[in-house]
Amino acid sequence: MYRNTYVKINNETLTSNVKKIVKFYNNYKYYIGVVKANAYGHGDYIVNDLIKGGINYLAVSSLEEAISIRKYNKKIPILVLEPINLKYINDILENDVTITIENIAYIEELTKLAINKKLNVHLKIDSGMNRLGFKCKEDLKKAIELLNTNKKIYIEGIYTHLATSGVNDQFYDKQISSFEQITSLVDLSNIPIVHINRSITLVHHKKLPYETGTRLGIIMYGFDSKIKEATGLRKLKKQIIHKLKKISPTITGEPLDVQSAYSLYTEVLSTRQVKKGDFIGYGATYIAKEDMLIATLPIGYADGMSPKIKYVIINNKKCEILGDICMDMTIVRIDSSIKIHDRVEVFGDKTSIRSIANMMGTNVYHVLTGITSRVPRVYQDNEEIKY
């Protein structure tokens, strides 16, 4: 690591998070860890720490991601959530990847191929998002009949992706109803893995009677979105709305004590004095209103720094970001106690990822996945640091 700008991941925290989730939501058979987008920016290296906590299936978005995961674990089942071009069937089989099927045409192409080993498939249902999946119960029934003509193909799972949060949400009920209607010609008890809920709906709704699996995404990485119980007039108003709109109850209460394992650090690269009236950075957009001391940091927008981030932490002090963030560098205001090579926290113990997301006007998903691959990931396992 030649440039002292890095993301630090605490592996123990990730393992602990999963253990807490599995212990609390203990009525599922399959805990599917979603590790797409380089494990939400944490790096594929962490998959075995998730498995150690209780994850027994993984999910990714592409064949490329699945093959990358296989470098770290050869045995864990991996579901690819998007359809894969079947010209890569040999790569699918070689890497023991479970595929998603979302239409009849794909099955017709699949059943013509020479499949020489068992291929697990999950059928995707479109319960309302209008993105991928079967929307018609007759098509789904036909799909299963076609797949059953090939003894090498095993229908292991069926699932949908809910478009809304399920919090005081009539669309949640509509989507569940749609899933049940589309699968009404199928005996779900004959399909080993039925997975519907994701992190946010998991914490806000009871397990459906036919669900055997749940997908864990952002909650594994330390973000439980469970809302607290409303009180007084707010509670009464919510109850009336639920009754009028026939909205299923939302589970409320204290969130699980899951913690973020992800911190972003850099260092002070250079310091200098500027005088009142001097400009700082590109475009002369910032003019010093007084004499001041500034520092240059080796991190910029090519690393994922957002122009909406207003400060960093150096030696437990908030240091204001000045001018426009450059591609590779950021300039901040400091005092004389701060020296070259002092560590700089962009987010971590002192500044939470949620607060950074609020600053940026976005969510934690964007923050985690927005830090680019040129920033090294450093892993802390017990007291050992691994690069």
Summarize the structure.
By secondary structure, the chain is an alpha/beta fold.
What keyword list fits this structure?
single chain, 387 residues, alpha/beta, TIM Barrel, Lyase, Ornithine Decarboxylase, Chain A, domain 1, 2 domains, ten-stranded mixed beta sheet, 20 strands, globular
- Under CATH, the homologous superfamily of the largest domain reads Alanine racemase
Low-confidence stretches: none
Could you tell me the CATH topology label of the largest domain: TIM Barrel
State Rg.
24 Å
CATH top level of the largest domain is Alpha Beta
Distance between the termini: 8 Å
Percentage of residues assigned to helices = 25-40%
Q: Average pLDDT across residues?
A: 94
Q: Which overall shape is indicated by the principal axes computed on the Cα atoms?
A: globular
Summing up helix and strand content along with how strands pair, one would put the structural category as alpha/beta
Number of helical stretches of at least 4 residues? 12
* Number of domain units: 2
How does the major sheet shape up?
Answer: 10 strands, mixed
The largest sheet has its strands arranged as 11-14-17-16-15-18-10-1-19-20
Strand content: 15-25%
The name of the CATH architecture of the largest domain is: Alpha-Beta Barrel
